[in-house]
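Help needed: design a sequence for this.
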């Protein structure tokens, strides 16, 4: 179960994002890159959020295990673990930083590391153990939390896995897509027609690291601060002041 503070933070951030998203389904990063959310460090000058690729490669994380094989020099075959600082240690004594890169990047880096001892080496890199793909659902759903992304899963299916929409939920939800450079690209998505069996082909597919935020209906949120009832309404009419 996610900490309620995270949900409160996201709700506050989305209040500002609604102004930056005048059209349903419009992506903040496409219309206003400066409005994209980036956690932690935002001091790098001139950096812009990257739009999500259609089929992005897996990004290597700490504690991932990589198998390096050299078909022409099998004595160099090795299995390495990404250290907490993001480096892997190679048999020739050198270290290379691989956290945040992809398998093709690692292959290129390993070739460079062995360039002094091997001429144009052939290197294969396989992921032996890696961070399992997850998605997160928070807000007005039955069971907020993190869930395994074991197969192709749409936004509607992801919400169903999280216990479905609560009675207080809006059908307009927000999807946070994590980009390789640390930004979040935010997309607003309306579930109403999907739930009615219309435009099913427009249901957005989730990617590892995505987060779905289901906001609360305005009237339900309003009632928390201005409770009222039929009797209360009659009382107000009789006592206008």
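Sure. Designed sequence:
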């Amino acid at each position: 179960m996610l900490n309620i503070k995270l949900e409160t933070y996201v709700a506050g951030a989305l209040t500002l994002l609604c102004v930056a998203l005048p059209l349903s389904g419009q992506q903040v990063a496409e219309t206003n890159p400066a409005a994209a959310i980036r956690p932690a460090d935002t001091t790098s000058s001139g950096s812009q959020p990257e739009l999500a690729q259609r089929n992005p490669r897996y990004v290597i994380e700490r504690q991932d295990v990589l198998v390096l094989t050299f078909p022409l020099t099998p004595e160099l075959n090795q299995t390495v673990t990404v250290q907490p600082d993001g480096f892997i240690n190679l048999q020739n004594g050198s270290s290379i930083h691989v956290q945040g890169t992809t398998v093709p990047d690692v292959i290129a880096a390993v070739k460079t590391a062995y360039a002094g001892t091997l001429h144009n080496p052939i290197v294969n890199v396989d992921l032996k153990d890696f961070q399992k793909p997850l998605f997160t659902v928070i807000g007005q759903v039955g069971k907020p939390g993190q869930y395994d992304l074991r197969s192709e899963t749409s936004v509607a299916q992801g919400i169903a896995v999280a216990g479905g929409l609560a009675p207080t939920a809006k059908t307009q939800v927000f999807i946070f897509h994590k980009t390789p450079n640390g930004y979040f690209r935010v997309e607003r998505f309306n579930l109403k027609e999907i739930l009615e069996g219309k435009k099913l082909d427009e249901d957005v597919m989730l990617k590892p690291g995505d987060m779905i935020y289901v906001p609360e209906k305005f009237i339900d949120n309003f009632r928390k601060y201005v409770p009222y009832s039929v009797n209360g309404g009659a009382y107000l009419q009789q006592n206008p002041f």
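Strands lie at 65-69, 78-81, 87-89, 95-97, 124-129, 134-139, 145-148, 172-178, 184-190, 211-214.
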